[in-house]
Amino acid sequence: MPTFCRHNHLVSNCTICAREQNVELRPVVTGGSATEAASAPRPARPVAERSAPRARRGGPRAGGRSGSGMTVRRMARGAEDGYHSDLVPGLRASSDAQRLAEEIAFAQARLDTIAQYAPGLWSEIADASGDVEERTWLAFLIALIGPTESEEPFAEIARVRVPWAGGAIPDLSGVSGGVRTSLDQADRTRTVQAYRAWAQRSGSQATAIAGDAAWTPQRRFARAYERLGLPGLQRGARFDLLATLGAAGLYELQAGTLALGASDPVTIAAKRVFGIGDAILLERRAMGLAEGCGVALQVLDVALFNWERGARATLGVPDAEPDPGLTDAVASALGL
Q: Are 235 and 264 in contact (CB under 8 A)?
């Protein structure tokens, strides 16, 4: 009796599941022999079509772009060496898995550093004696603009920041954002204006984010993330804003999902790591990875971002040192 896989194909026809279950792929059946196909005459094209420029016929253009203007980017992968782990079923190279283990350890160290040492502008956010509205506002500016990968990661943010009190809009023209910036190149003020209007509708930023006191940290995170779906505020900025606010101790926030979707780098990385594109299964496998590695789910956000990027972004915490013990533990959980 034929067996179907999770991709809704016959197992013997699915290149992914056949490899996982050691099932021999069925040969491709054509309507004729290879010799017949090769010798069959090709229909002649009209002279007008043969003489038309290639770009107008919809063929690929120079620079790796298709006729529709879409850019094709090839993903760098490690050499397959027989590696397999149920936690990361999309990976086939030990080097890819080892790199992911190192990025998970770094992402954990980053949040731990914000919680314990609060370097740079994080110190103002973590200062319990400061005004909650000003601290929340500063965290928003950090998430929006993004720390740079330089000796002074907060220089641009410090240069343009204005107090929350008074309702001023910072001048973001000419600002150089970080690698995860959410600044809109066309209109750099619309996101800030939308954020202020959003907070004012609730009475304050604290009220808008904290919501109901009876909510669990997971529900508070999910509701705040949903409400922060403002023009220009991309997934990465929204997620990291809430993750760092929770780490700094301003609000009780804990991610219950990675909020994956669209073409966000973290979503692309998750699809590669977990070997599937279904949003529900992606979230389920992300939770399984976090639990298997012994880290909170929000740690995977920065870990997957850096893994997909191929180079570590410190995101405002350049002094964060991954715990070698955690790196080894995650590597062990991944079967390395």
A: yes
In angstroms, how far is the first alpha carbon of the chain from the final one?
A: 37
Identify the helix (H) or strand (E) that includes residue 301. Answer: helix 299-309
Cα 113 from Cα 10, distance rounded (Å): 49
**In angstroms, rounded to a whole number, what is the distance separating the alpha carbons of residues 326 and 236?**
24
Largest Cα separation within the chain, whole Å, is 82
Q: Show Cβ contacts of residue 138 under 8 Å, excluding neighbours closer than 6 positions.
A: 121, 124, 125, 161
Report how far residue 241's alpha carbon sits from residue 237's, in angstroms, rounded to the nearest whole number.
6
User: Over the stretch 146-197, which tens digit does the pLDDT of each residue have?
Assistant: 999 999 999 999 999 999 999 999 999 999 999 999 998 788 899 999 999 9
DSSP string, 95-130: HHHHHHHHHHHHHHHHHHHHHHT--TTHHHHH-TTS
DSSP string, 167-221: ------TT----TT----SS-SSHHHHHHHHHHHHHTSHHHHHH--TTS-HHHHH
Report d(CA 211, CA 204) in Å as an integer.
Answer: 11
- By C-alpha distance, which of 304, 267, 336, 318 is closest to 109? 318
The SS3 assignment for 132 reads helix
Percentage, residues of the chain above pLDDT 70: 77
